[in-house]
Design goal:
448 residues; alpha+beta; 6-stranded mixed β-barrel; 6-stranded mixed sheet; 11 helices; 29% helix; globular
């Protein structure tokens, strides 16, 4: 019966998807037909302009102008003529730019991102478009910031990320890995549960019937012969619907909530006297809604006050309204225990690698692919001091939606949390994508 229900649901969803795609295509044709020659929707003009830019910024035809990269063990790799770009994976809202147009590129200490980049390369190297660039990375001296910088300039093309309206600035927030106290058993003061994934949560991966929806998943539960939305936060907490699915118990409900927002955390188990890491396992399928925005809409805080610290202060001053506040976000995250393989590293992000403090960001994968380098230009939390450095897109988040949108991973503990909670800055983003590297352009390894 469950198989039949799932089959019928998938067929229904496919029909809806095809209808939606038809409608979107029709609207697009109408808009393009009505666009003026100067309109940004005039794709031939945009493509022509982009190709002109690419011709200027790609390809060093005279090898005598090429520089050398310093390599490990006193070796060098001859800088290769920059080939044409790999068209696969390039998005419509990106525009190719030369590195000299990236504010802060020259001043960054590029070697600080090298370890994070190589962790992503361990899996990316098996993709055709990444094979050459990741192989070349094994020869570069990671302790030489200039060598790392030149490596990215040679093997990658930079693209400015734009919003749908053509603007370049977007919201940059911060997140971190909290360190909390808890217990595997419920006992005062550890009475606030963190849940593991319930058995009745149904996750539907639509790419099985529509590959175009690879990043879309539906979640729900079976009710009779129908699939209905899964319980929201208020239903779960008020009716104790997930009894026996508690993973750990914490001593603060606000801590438990914010750990869901962060997506992971470390918990010191007071009974066992050891620290474990718990990370994202699943989600109830409900839309994420910001509790900070809820307080602003209710007139409890103004927009500039809506930080994690101010929300905590408000919750402490209004304990009788705490349930109202937390339940305003119907989304709930479920966790699982994760191994701590290296205490220096952060939790495992959505790309499957451990995050690096101040060098990993969460992005919207519909705009920026996971595991690619992204140069970020913003400011430090509540300051005007510039924060411009190369990052790795290694995570995602329920609230991270949009083209120019990133969540900056600050690290583990209270200091990181203080920075993350205050960060709500405007910023610019540039994606770095591999240049196509035909066989004849493979690097030549030279020994001094």
């Amino acid at each position: 019966m469950k198989f039949l229900q799932r089959f019928l649901l998938l067929r229904f969803l496919r029909l809806r998807f095809l209808l939606l795609r038809f409608l979107l295509l029709s609207v697009t044709m109408i808009v393009v037909a009505c666009a003026t020659p100067g309109d940004t929707l005039n794709k031939p003009a945009v493509i022509k302009k982009e190709r002109e830019t690419l011709n200027k910024t790609s390809g060093v035809k005279d090898e005598s102008t090429a520089e050398d990269l310093n390599l490990k063990d006193n070796k060098k790799v001859k800088a290769i003529p920059l080939p044409q770009l790999n068209a696969l994976g390039i998005r419509d809202h990106w525009r190719a730019v030369p590195y000299q147009d990236i504010s802060g590129w020259e001043s960054d200490d590029h070697k600080q991102v090298w370890e994070a980049f190589n962790r992503s390369c361990r899996s990316l190297r098996f993709r055709a478009e990444w094979n050459n660039v990741c192989d070349a990375a094994t020869q570069v001296s990671g302790n030489d910031s200039n060598a790392v910088k030149r490596y990215f300039e040679i093997y990658f093309q930079a693209y400015a990320v734009m919003n749908k309206d053509g603007s370049l600035e977007g919201l940059i927030t911060g997140y971190y890995e909290p360190v909390l106290h808890g217990s595997r058993t419920k006992r005062a003061p550890y009475i606030y549960p963190v849940y593991r994934t319930p058995n009745d949560l149904l996750t539907i991966d639509l790419k099985e019937i529509a590959p175009e929806t690879a990043n879309l998943r539906l979640r729900g539960r079976v009710l009779g012969q129908r699939v209905v939305p899964y319980f929201n936060r208020a239903e779960i907490t008020s009716r104790d619907l997930l009894a026996d699915f508690e993973l750990v118990w914490l001593n603060d409900p606000v801590d438990a909530f914010f750990m869901e927002v962060q997506g992971s955390g470390r918990v010191y188990l007071v009974d066992e006297k050891k620290t474990i890491r718990i990370g994202y396992a699943n989600q109830n399928g409900q839309v994420y809604r910001s509790i900070g925005r809820y307080l602003v809409d209710k007139g409890e805080l103004n927009l500039t006050q809506a930080s994690a610290q101010s929300i905590r202060s408000w919750a402490k001053a209004h304990p009788e309204r705490l349930s109202e506040l937390l339940n305003s976000n119907p989304s709930m995250v479920f966790f699982e225990e994760k191994a701590i393989t290296d205490d220096r590293l952060g939790p495992i992000g959505a790309s499957g690698v451990n995050l690096t403090a101040a060098r990993s960001i969460a992005v919207d994968p519909l705009s920026v692919p996971l595991d690619v380098p992204v140069f970020l230009s913003t400011t430090y939390p509540n300051k005007t001091a510039p924060l411009r450095q190369l990052m790795m897109a290694q995570d995602t988040g329920g609230a991270i939606r949009g083209n120019v949108r990133a969540d900056f991973f600050w690290g583990t503990g209270d200091d990181a949390g203080n920075l993350a909670g205050k960060m709500k800055q405007q910023g610019l983003m540039w994606v770095l994508m591999p240049r196509a590297a035909p066989k004849e352009f493979e690097p030549i390894i030279l020994v001094k």
